[in-house]
Amino acid sequence: MLSNFKKKLFVIFSAMTILGAITPAAQAVDLSGSGASFVDPLLQACKAGFATKSGHSYTYTSTGSGTGRRNSDNKLGDFWFTDSAHTASSKRATVYNAPIVAAPIAVLVNLPARRDVYLSPTTVARIFAGEITRWNDPAILADNNRQVKVTVLRKDSVGNVVIGKDGKPVVLRTSTRNITYSMPNQPIKVIFRSDGSGTSGNFTRWLNGVAPTVWTKPANDAFTTAFPGNINAPENVGRIVGANQSQGIATLAKATKYSITYAEKNWGDAYGLRTAYIANASGEFIFPDQAAVTAFLGQATISDAGIVTYNYNTKVTGVYTLGIVSYMLLETSYDDKARGAAVVELAKYLLSPECAGKDPALGFVVLTGDYLTKANQLIARANK
Prior knowledge:
By secondary structure, this protein is of the alpha/beta class. It contains 14 helices and 16 strands. It has 2 domains: 30-102 and 322-379, Periplasmic binding protein-like II (D-Maltodextrin-Binding Protein, domain 2, 3-Layer(aba) Sandwich); 104-309, 3-Layer(aba) Sandwich (D-Maltodextrin-Binding Protein, domain 2).
């Protein structure tokens, strides 16, 4: 039997132990983020796992890359995402770009027949530039009535491409098949992002990179600014239209027969839109799966500042050249160190297979190899 004194000591010690055990929960941080709609499906899918693993929580408002950069400039919230690197003079000195989320931009179509659609980069550029206006245009017919090469790449356990000793993707097999598609004699409705969008910035950069004689203007997060002609010309009014954010353009495309747009592949899947096969510089028509995107990102370079430069004209086999990264804007020095530590935990979690590979149907890429090493080095610079 314990004496009354020992009982009191035992009760005090037990209470202190319990309080010590719950102290971390008392320090839980509720983070607030905003920016690119491109990453929103992943951030929403990973909320519960992050809360379980870290004890922290977060909310994320999908407002577009432009708003994410402005919120970062004005210190509104704790973390921000942008699909175009933040390099403007308004960027605060403590903020830097960390490319930690990757996925493909898909070219999405709403056609009545549930058939695969094949488009060359030049054809895509001419459609979005307003040069090709009907689905039965000879260029579209040529893309969809031909023999195509099919390349199957070796994948690892998380779905990424396996790179051989020569630095190129390992090809399991190749084959050819004949495709036919009688396109409808209908006008093409082009839908673009009307808000400041890093997706638009990446898409127009790709258009300028793969078809510079068609898409003659440089990239811009404002699609109307990057448009190579007069988007307000009478022939374009009502046929080339805009909508806000990825969900907005997916919603409008779903409601608009014979439309075409661009967004992260997950939005097309969610809204019943068809994802097109896009040709690369080797002449292969490639579907935007994880292996094809990682094969393409493997040809990109990352600067010490975290800026990714893509090689759109690489002739490495099996690459899908509309793969992009989204940058998390991090701080080298947070005013609130505990809050900064929680942001760093979130960045690491989003990069991990536990989050990035949580739901392959979302279409996000689990970064590995040198790319992963560089991303972790950039995250390590935060909250010093």
